[in-house]
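Q&A log
Question type: sequence-to-structure
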Amino acid sequence: MAKKIKKDDNYLELVPFKNKNQKWEVNDMGLVQLIIPREGILDKIVRFFFKTPKVMRIDLDAHGSCVWKTIDGKRNVEQIGAIIKEEFGEDAEPLYERLGTYINILRNNKFITLEKVSE
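Response status: OK
Response body:
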């Protein structure tokens, strides 16, 4: 059962959930590509005049792809960090500062939500 996040909640215990409407795919190199449809009225106008694509694709790097793939609605931020540490070793440092920033970027762009899950 998800609960509202409070300021004093431990960030590492929060569980990220992917936005159910977010489309994504894995490319030939095993990296994740987020797919964002451009369907707004302004997008259609810009597309008409400037011939821009109907979808925007965001390529994630190896670290970002690993984080995205491990977000399953069950693992908390600390568990995801442990997987990143195991996968990338010292290359992931400073691990939790980077992971926290990345999770917040995904959250601010509405690719994921963070929830406090009671057991």
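Response note: The CA atoms of residues 18 and 112 lie 4 Å apart.
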